[in-house]
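Ribosome maturation factor RimM, Treponema parvum. Tokens?
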Amino acid sequence: MLEQVTVGFVRGAHGVTGEFRVESASGEFEHILVLREVTLRGSGEQKIFKVEYVKPADSTLYMKLAGIDSPDDVRKYNRWEIVVPRKYAAPLNKNEWYIDDLKQCSLVYFAENKDGLKDKSESAVKVGTVTDVLEGGGGYLFEVSISENCDLLSKDIRYTASGKSRSVFVPFNYEHIRNVDVKRKEIELMHLWILE
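Tokens:
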């Protein structure tokens, strides 16, 4: 598991002093209100900032960081992730995971027996890698890069018409995904047809 996790996102300037709106990654705000230092990450870069203040507003937060002093400064960091050490992130409940921990997990498939449960004697076949987690209209979606050497999938499913490795979206729900193990970096896919 990663030592740092994303707790929010920069969502545009508020006023003229370099203050910006914060979108919470978890929907919770309490843990962000007490932060004293954050890392902003985006565009292949990351930069550490001291927090001058965080203040709550209607369903959002406003944050001011040392060195970001104008709307133009904020524009540079718009849509960047706000990253902190794991100990400062919102606490998790059962069946909750940090998005950063889900990224780069292997998506594995077990041959199913007649009752739909995996056969414990079978070994997992890696069918892809979770590259991102996105919000969709009906819930979260895994963006999955399909494994090029998975013999369970035909070539036209593994590759695009131009021969590039395919990516697909898989709904992150109990019907399609089970047994999330972020320590082993492994997530079980219930149905192969969802990759087609």
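The longest helix spans residues 71-77.
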